[in-house]
Structure formats: C-alpha cells, structure tokens
Amino acid sequence: MAGFVFLCAAALLLTAGGAIPPPEEAARMARFVLHSCDWGALATLSTQEGLRGRPFANIFSLSDGPPGPFSGSGVPYLYLTDMEISVQDLEINSNASLTVSLAETPYCKKHRYDPQNPLCAHIIFCGSIVKVNDSEAGLAKKALFSRHPEMESWPKDHNWFFAKFNITNIWVLDYFGGLKIVTPEEYYSVKP
C-alpha cells in the first residue's frame, strides 16, 4: 500500500505544472531527480574472478528521504549486505558512480521521451559508499523504509546495514548541449 501511495504522489509531483526545475537550475534538477527515484544503477570496479578491475553496474534501491515534495535530504541512502556482489567490490574500493533517471518515473513516458533523450533527465553522481554512523542510522532507516517497506522484513541473518553515497562529483544531463557540472556545495544548498 505504501508503494502505491508513493507512486501516486510521484505521478502527481511529476505531472504538476512547473514541478520539473528549468534546465538553467542544474543543482535543483539533480536534487529533484534523485528524490523522484526509488532506485539507481551503482557502478563499481569488480573484484570478482574473471571481471577483476572492470566496471560492474548493479541496480540498488535508494532513498534520500520519505516521499513527498521538499522532504529529500539529497543524500542517497542504501540498505546493503556484505553478501551482495557489488558490496564485496566496495569493500576493496569504495569508489563508485550512481546514475538515477526520470525514465523510472511516469514523466518520460508521458512525454514520449526515450530514456536516452536528454529531456528525460538523468544524474550521474561520483563518490564513495560509506556506512552511516549511529547518529545518522535513524535518518537512513526512515528514508529507506518509508519508500521500501519490504526492507524491514529482509532476512536478519544477512547482516544488513545502512550506507550512504558520499557525493564528490555531479553531472546533470537534462537538456540539449551536453552535461552540466554541479558541485556538492551547490547541490546541497538548493531546495529541491
């Protein structure tokens, strides 16, 4: 039920007039797209036999805060286990990139934008994955479990932990003319 409520809220948010930030507000667009997405593609450098040192992308559920406008922190939180193949990569090298796209929302389909069309905005974050400390764990739990309620019932013997994507670089592709670079300072200083 919570997933359905979020989907309806996301659809309303994305179809509301003026909800999508204009192309000249790249930092706001980055915050908007992240908050609109429930998952992203996380790329690591593989440590697996036969793939060692090669790029490896995997899908992860994420959240920067509970659903709804203006409730996102901008911090991509994840719920991870050491049993996951990409997490094993991160234990050796915590550097990663994370891509989120409005293609996962109703917005691009409504406008008939192909996911590769720049108007179907996507954001590429570079940085590293770090476990959250005890003081941030409650915030991460609320952000993730509000959007992904089934996480609460995932097997306890998998030793799940809360982590965040520590952003160092941001690229925004939301219009024609190429990528826009947004600094983390710009990103965190704007309201989505």
CATH architecture: Roll
Beta-strand share of residues: 25-35%
Which structural class is indicated by helix and strand composition? alpha+beta
User: Which stretches of 5+ consecutive residues score pLDDT under 50?
Assistant: 1-18
> How many angstroms separate the termini?
26 Å
Percent helix, as a range, is 25-40%
- Helices and strands, in order, run as HHEEEHEHEHEEH
CATH superfamily: Electron Transport, Fmn-binding Protein, Chain A
Radius of gyration: 16 Å
Number of helices: 6
Instruction: Give the overall pLDDT as a whole number.
Output: 91
Family: Belongs to the CREG family.
Keywords: Glycoprotein, Secreted, Signal
Organism: Chunga burmeisteri (Black-legged seriema)
InterPro entries: CREG, CREG_beta-barrel, Split_barrel_FMN-bd
